[in-house]
Write a structure and sequence with these properties.
By secondary structure, the protein is of the alpha/beta class. It has two domains: 6-115 and 311-342, NAD(P)-binding Rossmann-like Domain (Rossmann fold, 3-Layer(aba) Sandwich); 117-302, 3-Layer(aba) Sandwich (Rossmann fold). 38% of the residues lie in helices and 14% in strands. Helix 3 links the parallel strand 4 (86-89) and strand 5. Helix 1 (18-27) runs parallel beside helix 13 (311-331), helix 4 (113-133) packs antiparallel against helix 13 and helix 5 (135-143) runs antiparallel to helix 6 (147-156). The radius of gyration is 22 Å and the shape is elongated. Residues 126-307 form the D-isomer specific 2-hydroxyacid dehydrogenase NAD-binding domain. InterPro entries: D-isomer_2-hydroxyacid_DH, D-isomer_2_OHA_DH_cat_dom, D-isomer_DH_CS, D-isomer_DH_NAD-bd, NAD(P)-bd_dom_sf.
Length: 349
C-alpha cells in the first residue's frame, strides 16, 4: 500500500466541516505545526531543517489564523520542499502571498473567493444603496443624537439621493465575486452592468447580467455612475488621483477588494471637490487603522472589512480549502486556482 500524501496544516483546528475533515484526514497524513513553529523565524528554521520532511500541500483553513509567518515571498517560498504542489487557503484576497513566486516553483495557489462571494456581494449591495441614497449622512446624523443634525439629514439628504435603477454599475474585476455582484445588482436594482477585466466573459455570461465589456479602464470610469473595485491587489495602487479624475463627475465609488488599491488622500480630495458624490468602503489601506478624514466624511459609508464576514463564509472557506487539495492531489484539478495561468509547465496542472 502506497504511503499517504502529506499535508502541512497551518492555523487552528477545523471548526465546522467535521465530516469533510474526517474524509480529508483519512486520505492524507496531516502535519500540524505548533503555534510557536508558525512564527516566521521559527517556521523558516523548521523548513531549512526539513523538520517535517517532504509534504505535498499546505492547508490554511481560516483567514485569521495560520498567517503568523507573514508574507509568503521569495525569502520563504524557496524553502518549501520540492514535493509541495498546492497551497489552499481561506480568504478571497491574497495580497500577502506572491502567487507568481509560487508559480515559479510549480505550486498552485488556491483561494476561497468562491466561498465568500455571496457575503461580499450582499455587502456590496448595501454599499451601492448607501452611496446612491446618502445613507452615511443619515446614519451619522441619527447617531449624533443631535436634533438639528437629524432634521437637516431628514430634510436635505433626499435632495441628492437617487434610486440605483437604470444607472450604470461599473465593476473592475468580474471574477467570482464581481460576477455575483453583477447578478444581484442587475436582478434586484435593475442596474446596467459594465465591466473591465483582463479576461472577457463569454457572450452567454455577459447576457445573463446584461453586461457591457470595456477593454480600457478609462472608458469604464468615464461611463459608470458607480464603480466597484473587485479585483485582487497586484502590487501597486490602482485608483490614483489621476484615475479618480477619469471618473464621471458626480459618480460614486465602492471598494470591497483591498484598501491598498486606493490612494486614500486622493479619494478624500475628489470627494471634497465634489467630483465624486459618495464612497462606500469595506477595506482600508492601513488596517486596522483608518484614514480619519475619510471615515468621518459625511458622504462615506465605512465598514471594518466585514464584507465576507459571515459564519456561512467561514464554513465555506474551511470546506473549500480541503476540497481544493483533494481535487488537485487526488483528481488532478484544483477547484479555485489563482495562478494556474502563470505556471510555465503544463505538467504542473
Amino acid at each position: 500500500m502506497a504511503p499517504k500524501l502529506r499535508i502541512l496544516h497551518i492555523g487552528d483546528n477545523i471548526k465546522y466541516n467535521h465530516d469533510v475533515y474526517a474524509r480529508f484526514s483519512s486520505e492524507f497524513e496531516i502535519i500540524q505545526p505548533s503555534a510557536e513553529e508558525r512564527e516566521r523565524e521559527e517556521f523558516m528554521r523548521a523548513l531549512k531543517e526539513r523538520r517535517w520532511g517532504d509534504f505535498h500541500a499546505i492547508f490554511r483553513p481560516f483567514w485569521n489564523t495560520g498567517g503568523e509567518m507573514g508574507r509568503w515571498d521569495r525569502e520563504l517560498i524557496p524553502l518549501l520542499p520540492k514535493s509541495v504542489k498546492v497551497m489552499a487557503s481561506a480568504g478571497a484576497g491574497y495580497d500577502w502571498a506572491d502567487v507568481d513566486v509560487f508559480a515559479e516553483h510549480g505550486i498552485i495557489y488556491c483561494n476561497g473567493a468562491a466561498a465568500s462571494s455571496e457575503s461580499v456581494a450582499d455587502m456590496t449591495i448595501f454599499l451601492i444603496l448607501s452611496v446612491f441614497r446618502n445613507l452615511a449622512w443619515s446614519h451619522q446624523a441619527a447617531h449624533s443624537a443631535n436634533p438639528q443634525a437629524f432634521a437637516d439629514a431628514h430634510k436635505n439628504s433626499p435632495l441628492t439621493a437617487r434610486n440605483p435603477r437604470n444607472h450604470v454599475l461599473g465593476i473592475i474585476g468580474l471574477g467570482q465575486i464581481g460576477y455575483m455582484i453583477a447578478q444581484k445588482a442587475y436582478a434586484a436594482f435593475g442596474m446596467k452592468i459594465a465591466y473591465h477585466d483582463l479576461f472577457r466573459k463569454s457572450a452567454e455570461q455577459e447576457s445573463r447580467v446584461g453586461a457591457t465589456y470595456y477593454k480600457d479602464l478609462e472608458s469604464l470610469l468615464a461611463n459608470a455612475d458607480c464603480v466597484v473595485v473587485a479585483t485582487p491587489f497586484a502590487g501597486k495602487t490602482l485608483l490614483t488621483l489621476e484615475r479618480f479624475r477619469q471618473f464621471k463627475k458626480g459618480s460614486r465609488f465602492i471598494n470591497i477588494a483591498r484598501g491598498s488599491l486606493v490612494d486614500e488622500e486622493a479619494l478624500v480630495q475628489v470627494l471634497d471637490e465634489g467630483h465624486l458624490a459618495a464612497a462606500g468602503l469595506d477595506v482600508h489601506a492601513n488596517e486596522p487603522y483608518v484614514h480619519p478624514r475619510l471615515v468621518k466624511h459625511p458622504r462615506v459609508m465605512a465598514m471594518s472589512h466585514n464584507a465576507g464576514g459571515t459564519v456561512d463564509t467561514h464554513i465555506g472557506f474551511e470546506r473549500l480549502a480541503m476540497e481544493n487539495i483533494e481535487g488537485f492531489l487526488l483528481k488532478g484539478k484544483a477547484l479555485t486556482p489563482v495562478n494556474a495561468h502563470l505556471l510555465k509547465s503544463k505538467s504542473f496542472l
